[in-house]
Amino acid sequence: MSVHATARLRAEPDGRGGTALPVLESDGPLALRRTRSPLAAYARVTVVGAMSAPLNGDGLAIEADIADRARLTVDSAAATVALPGARADGEPSTYTVDLSVGEGAVLRWLPEQLVSARGSDLHLTTRVQLAATGRLLLREEQILGRHGEPSGALTTRLTVHRAGRPLLDQQLAYGPCAPGGWDGPAVLGGHRAVGQLLLADPSFEDAPLPARLLGPTAALTPLAGPAVLVTAVAADARLLRGVLDEAMHELLDGLDGDDHISASSSANRSPQRSDDGTGDMPERCPGHHSR
Amino acid sequence: MSRAALLVLADGRFPAGGHAHSGGAEPAVAEGRIRDADSLAAFCLGRLHTAGLTAAALAAAAAHGLDPLALDEAADARTPSPALRTTARKLGRQMMRAARATWPSPELDALALARPRGVHQPVVLGLTARSAGLGPVDAAHCVAYETVSGPATAVVRLLSLDPFHATAVLARLAPELDRVAEQAAEAARQGIDGLPAASAPLLDITAEAHAAWPVRLFAS
Question: Chain B residue with minimal CA distance to A290?
Fold first, then answer.
């Protein structure tokens, strides 16, 4: 039985220098909890997985609306593990994240890793509408397979518009449903952890950062608009997080002052591992229509 | 459509400057990720289905008549590496010069006037194809082929790979090239929001590393 669930939240200034959450709706496996924010002006929401999801065939969505001048951190209690579920030949699961960041608002979207377990098939879509003076710190990490297992099928698309114009559009496809070459020397080169960290801040308009390497398999690059993107591949989740955390702290230290996105320690957790009996799942492309 | 016009546009000797670029093969050879014909084939296949598909769809969309300025913006959003944006614009300027001499058209003139510092090369190529009387699938074929012929030619020089083996890699990719070109042209028919954005993390990362090399054989 597949699950379809949409969790919603809205953040607004509370009129006392903080941020209120007039809408905080959990649904199905997506439980939203208001948690204590170490940053005074920010509200913080933690996504808590209330059951094992997504399984193939599930449709999950989160919609977050950050009103003008609100400040919000969203994180998650654990890694999200895409699993095949009972029917390995089922339809793909979808996970759609729609984020809207208003004028003068700040969103720090820092979920834990997405783990693509063997036999799973997930389409993850993240869409962001960012106002011209809105600020965004967004991290995405994909881990291809739990420890020692082949990757599930995973496609992700991250589309960010700023003031209605395209700022970043990236599509990644890995695993048994992906077109050839995804694991080869042009795309992943055998790495099993891929991550992106995006920082969009209007101050980059006047002072763009130069591109630089963050080790042999990671780079920080200024986008055509006022934003920087860190792209990294690594052997595993822990190494990837190390690179992204270091980049995040350097980036945020470079933007000090209360007016900017604040740094805050983010726990360095490894993705959850559980034995759910999928160890003998076939490495084929389940229920897929494309290619 | 004129099949001969397609040959002229797709010819490696078309004076648009592509021969100076390895398509990311130079850093891949330096790091040992391309060592032989097999790893070259894997590299080309990955590049074709990521950066190649994205670029081919931009070209098909321009050939289809979509607004080239909006396509240039879409190309920027799909190119996080500033080194690759610079390369794409430089090649776009060279393509524009060649195109206006070979298949002059008011659309090419207008685009050159609107963006004197250059437009992403696939967008210019698509508009060139349109000026030459070619269609979106033709433009997509040109770009898809360039995506793999550039690295294959470069690796012959970088590794002293046997040119017969490099060309055999390209020949074996032909069915995939046809599929990617069709897929790109189909996406272009959906309008600008339907364009793919397939990306390759290692190509983006190593393009920045390569641009900082003090001495290199290829510009990108």
Answer: B183
Q: With an 8 Å Cβ cutoff, is B43 touching chain A? A: yes
pLDDT digits (tens, 9 = 90+) for A138-194: 999 999 999 989 999 999 999 999 999 999 999 999 999 999 999 999 999 999 999
Give yes or no for residue B61 having a pLDDT over 60: yes
CB spacing of A229 vs B80 below 8 angstroms: yes
Contact criterion met (CB below 8 Å) for A153 and A116: yes
As to burial, measured by CB atoms within 10 angstroms (0-12 exposed, 13-18 middle, 19+ buried), residue A148 is: exposed
Q: Averaged over B190-195, what is the pLDDT?
A: 94
| Upper half-sphere CA count for residue B214 (Cβ side, 13 Å) | 0
Beta strands in B30-149 (DSSP E): none
| pLDDT 10s digits, B105-155 | 999 999 999 999 999 999 999 999 999 999 999 999 999 999 999 999 999
Give the nearest partner residue to A233 out of B31, B51, B201, using CB atoms: B201
The percentage of residues in chain B with a pLDDT greater than 90, rounded to a whole number, is 94
Using a CB–CB cutoff of 8 Å, tell me whether B82 touches chain A: yes
**Chain-chain contact of B24 with A224 (C-beta, under 8 angstroms):** no
Please state which architecture CATH assigns to domain B3-211: Orthogonal Bundle (1.10)
B42 to chain A nearest CA, in Å?
A: 5
Contact at CB, A185 and B50, closer than 8 angstroms: no
How far is residue A89's CA from residue A57's CA, in Å, rounded to a whole number? 10
ipTM of the complex: 0.96
The full set of domain ranges for chain B reads 3-211
Confidence of residue B156 (pLDDT cuts 50, 70, 90): very high
Interface test with chain A among B31, B147, B195, B208, by most A beta carbons within 10 Å: B208
* Separation of alpha carbons A122 and A139, rounded Å: 18
Instruction: Look at A170 and B197 and tell me if their CB atoms are within 8 Å.
Output: yes
Q: How distant is the Cα of A165 from the closest Cα of chain B, in angstroms?
A: 8
Report how far apart, in Å, the C-alpha atoms of A60 and of each of A116, A140, A174 are: 15, 17, 20
Q: Give B124 to chain A, closest Cα distance, Å.
A: 19
Among the residue ranges A43-52, A55-64, A144-153, the one predicted with the least confidence is A43-52
The answer to whether B45 contacts chain A (CB < 8 Å) is: yes
Classify residue A212 as exposed, middle or buried by CB count within 10 Å of its CB (0-12, 13-18, 19+). middle
Q: What is the pLDDT of residue A49?
A: 81
